[in-house]
Every structure is written in C-alpha cells, then in structure tokens.
C-alpha cells in the first residue's frame, strides 16, 4: 500500500466516523450520575443535549414548567429544540453563551467539543436571576395561547429557582471545567475509534498485500527461497514445492542444506551475499543430477528487512537456453570450418600428397641401392656413389628433409582444423594464450576465399607478446573460435582499404586479467555500428554474405562462458581494435 493510499484511507476513516454522536463516545449513564450529583450540590438544573438532533442525553433538576408544559406542547417543544440547537452558532470551543429562551426562562450553554466539532451542549437552566422579576404577563399569554391551565402554569413558574449572579458564575466555572473534561473524553474516544478502524483497515490492507505478494511470488516460474543468516528457510514458493516435492509448511523453519541438499554447496555464497550485501551469481550450474543434461542459473540476493539479515535465492532452469546457445556456437563454428575447409582442400590436401610422395620417391631413387637406380647411373656413365657425394655436397638431403618438415607442418594444420571442428564439450584446461593465437593465425592463413578476393597470407602480422605469460583456464577451441572470428572480419574489412593490410596482436597481463588486443588498420566503423556490433544477427555485410552471429557468439563465449570481458574500439577511417580479457585463475 503506497503512502498516498494510506493517507486516503485515514481520511476516509475520519470522514466516516465524523457522524458519531456524543452518546456513541461516552457512557450516558455516567453523564446522568454526574448531573444528579451536580444538582444535589448546587441546586442548579442542568442538561446535556445533542447539538444537532436536540436529543436530551441527561438532565437533572428540570423544572415542572418545562417538563409538564414547554416540553409537552408541540409548539413550545419545537421552540425548546430550536433554542437548544440554534445555540450551536453562538458558542465556540472554550466559550459559553447565556440567553433567555423563547419560552422566557434563562439558559446558559457550554459547548462539548470532539476533535474541533461541536457535538453537544451542557446547559445550565432553567432559572431566573434573584434580582429579576419575571414578566408574568408574558407567561399568562403563553398559557392562553397554548391552552395551559393558567393557575397551575403560573404556580410552576413560581417554582423556578432564583440565583444570584455571583452564584451562577461560580456554578458556570464548574460546568465549563466539566464540559472541557467531557470534550477531552469524547475526543479520546473518537481517536480510539479512528485508531481501531485504521488499524483494522491497515491489517486488512497488509493481509491483502501479503496475499498479493504471495501470489506474485508463487506465480513466478523461478524457484524462490528465502533464508536467514543461519540458513533456515523463511520463504518457499510454489515452484520450490513443485520441484522439490516438499510442501511450504514442511519446508519453513528447516535448514536449507537439509531440506534441499543440492544447495548445500551454495551456503558459502549465501553467507558472502549476506555479509557483503552484494548479489552472488552462478551461471549454467549443472542441475541436481550433477550432469550436463540440465543447467540452472542461481542468483543470491542479500535481503535486509526489519533489521534482520537474510538472502533470497532464485533458481532458473536454463537448460533450453544453454542448449540453444551451444547450438548457435556449433552452427557458427561449422560455418567457419566450412569456409576454411575449401581453402585447405585446395591449398594443402592435394599438393601435400604430391609433395610428400615425390620427396619420398626422390630419396628412394638416390639413396636406396635398387637395381634400377644402379643401371640408370651406369647408362649415364656415372657411379651412384659419386651422384650421392655431389648431392651431399650441395645439401640436397637437407632440402629433402625441409620438404618433409614442411609436409609435417601442413599435416599439423589439418590436425588443428579437425580438432577445431569437433564439438566443444567445455573442457576447461590451462592454455597458453600466445600459442592459441598463433595457431589461430596459422588456421586463418589457410583460408583463401576467391569470392571475397583476399588472401590472409598477404596480411602483415605484428606480434607484441609479453614474456612469461601465465596460462589461462579456458576452453581452447572456443577461444580459438573467438580469435578466428575477429581475424576473418578484420581481413574482410581491410580488403576494401587502400592501405597495406596489417594486424597488430598484443598479449599482456593486467592485474588479474590476461588481455588480448587484435587491431587492424582497416576502415574502422562509425559509432552507431560499434554500439551494435555484438548484437545477434546484426551485420553490415550484403545479404547472403553473413549471418550476424560471429561476433555475438564470440561475445557470449568470452563474457558468459569464461567470465571475461570483450570490447571493441574504433576510429572511423583509421583502425579497429578488439579487446579480450580472460580471468587469470
């Protein structure tokens, strides 16, 4: 419930209770007892009458002229009620007003207030002042006009008490104090009523709010579990019930590591979140079966409520998302492999067999004592031994060995390609980052795409690697894919540039990061392109020439899979630099 809603509710409560009468706020029997005692002590008639309705709540010492005559006849009674209520306009809080009523007798009214509202009047009367001579002619006319028995009416008139003004003033002071006491009592009662009603309304609102929040929590598809610093469960939503098979009433108050043993390993993260008041996350955590078939994200939020610390654990099943991401990775990888395979088949596989085959035949025909070798030498008029001596002096064997070594290097390229094309199982191992980058450059050098008319081997490579780089715990195949995507995009971009194409590769350590910078001297990119460069399916290439997934997949590999950072900087028309930071563990 918002602050404005609470204020509105409070105002509504006050308005609804503002119609309460004095009889709803104080005990009427006590009022009557109070007036009876006052009359016995002072002899002054008095009454407490509602300020709006004219209802008489209590009275003491009322005179016969009023009871038997004025309050009986409908016309004179109407005058009484009109006088009782009309005085409301003449008296204010803390003041009084004395007047002779329409029926000719003195009354003094003292207001009884409730929260600034005039709810009743404390009357002194009926009486005459001692030095005052009543106008008997007026009362005789009253008797004639309303059909009163004149003698009995005048006798009742003579019974009305007389008071000295000083005595009236003394009694009035007492009644003013008494009226103030009643006003205070009525105000306190009203405030109690308001407080009770507001409390009821607040409790109802809190109940509704709790139900509303509980419905929100139970409607979420995530597992939500609240725990205190001791690991006791304080919240257990419907999804937690569904997954664990444990009802909420059975889970609340139990220890998390006992009720859900699969989260026992998270207790350290929970304590860290509570102590540091910082969110803790564990992405792509293996599911409860501890295998790669299911994955879940665990987020632990620190919680402080009513001075009590705790944490909220959110668990999301991300198996489907992870599977899709892996499919995207594999799909993008296979697209890269497909582009490289054609170049390899053209540039390596076919000539490699010819080179190695001919080199082997050359060695056989020179250095093996075969009959055909000997007869061919005799036909030429030379000995095979002299031919071998000549070739040794000309270092031909060393050249043949060089041919053989080149063939082996070519075979290594093929093996790297095969290893790269295999589906990654996220086998994190310690890797030498400079070696990974060099191997990737060697892979890229074999990618010759005639349609794009560029040859990676013609691009200058400048290496600036720090010495004694510590190994990085990572998935080597995936990091190679990141490097390859950057190198291929840079090479394609530099084709359109008139400069001599050049990559500058730097590798160094920065605090707890291994940093790889790959810069090209291509055309760069405008800021609006740079901001979107890692968005999936965003591409500046022509239709059919790019999927827009390469760099987004690379970003995912670095940031999500390896907990690293990938960024790009560019100066339009001058250069582009990709920066990759991998944590050193």
What attributes characterize this protein structure?
585 residues, alpha+beta, five-stranded antiparallel sheet, 20 helices, 20 strands
Describe this structure in words.
The chain contains 20 helices and 20 strands. The protein has 585 residues and is α+β, with helices and mostly antiparallel strands. The strands form five sheets. Strands 1, 2, 3, 4, 5 and 6 form a six-stranded mixed β-sheet that branches. Helix 6 crosses helix 7 and helix 13 packs antiparallel against helix 16. The radius of gyration is 51 Å and the shape is rod-shaped. The chain starts with a helix and ends with a strand.
Mind sketching the topology for me?
Layout: H1 3-17, H2 22-25, H3 28-42, E1 46-50, E2 56-60, H4 64-70, H5 74-86, E3 97-100, E4 106-114, E5 117-129, H6 136-146, H7 150-159, E6 162-163, H8 165-219, E7 223-227, E8 233-236, H9 238-244, H10 248-251, H11 256-259, H12 267-276, E9 280-286, E10 295-305, E11 308-317, H13 319-367, H14 371-379, H15 384-393, H16 396-421, E12 429-431, H17 433-445, E13 448-449, E14 454-455, E15 460-465, E16 472-474, H18 476-495, E17 502-510, E18 513-520, H19 527-530, H20 550-561, E19 565-571, E20 575-583
Parallel strand pairs: 5-6, 15-17
Antiparallel strand pairs: 1-2, 1-5, 3-4, 4-5, 7-8, 7-11, 9-10, 10-11, 12-16, 13-14, 17-18, 18-20, 19-20
Helix pairs in contact: 1-8, 6-7, 13-16, 17-18, 18-20
